[in-house]
Amino acid sequence: MRTARSSLDLLAAIALALAGLVAALIPLETWLRVVLLAPLVLGVCGDAILAALLPDRRLQGAERVVYAVALSLAATTLAGIAVQLVFELDRTAWAVLLVVVTIAAALLALWRRQCGRAEQLNADERPGGRRLALPGVLSTLAVVAALGIAVAAVAISSAGAKRERDGYRFTALWAQPVDRASGAGAAVTIGVDNHQGATARYRLVVAQGGTTIAKRTLQLPDASRWRLRVPVAPIAATDPVSATLHREGEIYRRVYLENGAP
Amino acid sequence: MIRGREQALEGGWSQTQPAPLATAPGVGARLGIRRISLGAMPLLALVAAGGLILVALGNNLAREGRAGAQPLFWAGLAVIYAPIVYRLLGRGASRAERLGLVLTLALSLYLTKVLRSPAEFVRFDELGWWRASNEAVLSGHLFESNPLNPATAGFPSLAAVTAALSQLSGLSIFHSALIVIGLARAVLILALFLFFERLTGSARGAGIGIAVYACNPSFLYFDAQFGYESLALAVAAAFLLAALRWSRFERIAVGPEVGGTAALVAVLACGLAVTHHMSSLAVIGFLALWLLVRWLLLRGGDSAEVKLMGPLLPTAALAVAFALWFAFVAGGETIDELGGVFSRAFHSIVDLVSGDQGSKQLFSGASESQPLAARALAIASVIPVLVLILAGLRLIWRERLRDSLSLALCGVALLYPVTLGLRLTQAGSETSQRASEFVFLGVAFLAALLVARRPPRGALRRSERARRLLARIALSAVALLTFVGAFLLGELQATRQPGPYLVGAEDRSVTPQGVAAARFAAAHLPPRSRLLADRTNATLLGSYGGMDPIFGRFADIPLPRILFAPQFGHPDERAVHGQSISFVVVDRRLSRETPLIGYYVESDEPGAFARKRAVGPRVLEKLRSVPNVSKIYANGQIVIYDSSELTR
Fold first, then answer.
1. CB proximity B582 to A under 8 Å
2. Hey, is the C-beta of A88 within 8 angstroms of any chain B C-beta?
3. B84: burial class by Cβ within 10 Å (0-12, 13-18, 19+)?
4. pTM score of the predicted model
5. Nearest CA to CA, how far is A226 from chain B (Å)?
6. What confidence tens digit (pLDDT) does each residue in A155-207 have?
């Protein structure tokens, strides 16, 4: 009973690692994944390693946090470097890797704590020793409010950045051979992307060697895309394909293909 | 000459154990919960958050090009920094409060950087690391080559951690990166606080040390960006803390901890070696200096344990880890990057001394100069740091301190005037900027020592209390001046805040048109196609676009001439063919003005730092008349030409 209580941190690390493994393997909401898996990458893994290295829990809170995070970063990198020589590092590989490291380190720490118990009683386990330290209610509320204001600052800045982005108004016109790899030049794709901040009307004319091969009148809502596949004869410098986009009665954009494939 | 035997400072672990805390009465006590007093920290956190609101509003005004942007921004920084420093200077705060205050300072200043660009990365280095992380996610392997930042292939730590977090949590690379770097910032400050506290035995001194460390010119933006240096600083600080723990074993009874601490030092050494070359080398250099000073202070009668403890193991661990990593993995990347930086700095200094090159105009980019007041403030900010170094050295001399680590940190602080000299040259500025985060470790230590060594005073008369209050206010004001001046020194005026598009101005040149062109390339062009573009578009196309931008020369032909020569001639065709350049990207806005950083594509292009006029608009249209070159994309400002036919 006493062992279990004195090693609650390690048991919690093992439980979190296993929960993280499950979370990595089944479909979950992103926020839940963040809650379950981010600590594993950024701290829990390193804390278990630290407990294995220094099992007697002499380290104070802030120093423990420093080493736990630094060891997590180091362990994630070093283990990732080793594993990627054999496997691809996808979500499952990362999860298994971190869970194995965390559980192995936690079990080693448990064993070392057991071994050391007979020789030396932990300072933390003496009466009045290790206890959770929390600030008062008012202090906590003030810190939470400060966090809320900081989030508001980020929201204000994000809104400003979005307004700035929306202030750049333009339309993109592009043309590409349908199958660049084959170089057959059997068809081209024409694309129009509207970033004008409002619905816009265009007229598109596609020509090859001076002959119009397609015409379209478009009305595109803001932030929408339009694609057209046009069959063409083999493209050459002497027989290029051109696409001209007209807006408000004037030529607005023009692209052309003089070669069918790279 | 150092005389006398090594005597560690009176800091050490014993004084840093948590102070007894008040126990909450009632239920909390029965549940084993202690109440911890944070003093004024929650209130100052609220004030700092208010400062962030000011910064955000100032940035929004700057985005719209409206008046009042700068006053709000600077006021925000002052509101964040000054009250915290004022409180840290006082004697009334508890250790927990000081820890809370330095964390509040660190995270508030980190958020200031986030507010600069809260939705996407815009810095060159950040976009290079975005690409490295994205490659790690897409390929499942580290060490993928990266044309934007070749060093990422040799030091995959940041990409590995970010990719792991992104893949496991489902967050985007951008948001994962913000979390990783924010955590690294918190760990850096915590570790430095504990390091200074252990050394000086004073939480108050440690708090002031952190406030001074924040005055290094790289702290606010450069060290908070998504780059390997930002992560490495945190690991390096943790490593130094572990090294200090190891080196002071003779002063505490630790017994079975020795092996575990040695392993801790070794793992962190490996972690640092694979994270960043410059940080590893700087820490190795510092440990070697510490070792040297310690050996000079050792006496013949000292025990083997005393001789072997100290910085020998950490130095050896990091040196061996880095040497192996350098020899088998990252030698090429390290030599290419650091060799370039140091060789450019060296040649700049030689040219300056020999008169071949004039001195660089201080506090300015190639095409911008700062207002007189900003220059004066930047110059004035250097003075308190120099005074602090002199006062610290005087204290060490007067008290005959014989602690090898303290003396080594003094040596580091003495590099500060040297780095100021480097700022007189264009290339040296980069070295000086990068060195500041290491040099300020020594400066901050001296500040911590000065504060820690001031004897506590008993009851004060009212007049003395008023005098000390004024002194605290004055010191806070000087610290604020130093902090603001350092930021002026370290960051171009154009990139401190967002704003309308500027030519060749790093962050300020990234616009939705460039991002749209990069997204088009990612969706419709063959991955990793080789292309030529100006620096900003190369960065965007190399990151979001997944292309491989090409820099440098082919034979003797500088590639930027393909973009900027009056006509597309035979040398250009040879270069396109020889370098297999499939696409050429032209940004018509380059004709508006000369590039703010002095060059359009790369720093050694023809005309770099010497252009008086912008490239002409007709030059940028010349590819329209080149046979077998297709114009495949146009968005009004940016055009992508397909030159693949010329590569056959």
1. yes
2. yes
3. buried
4. 0.91
5. 13
6. 999 999 999 999 999 999 999 998 755 555 589 999 999 999 999 999 999 99
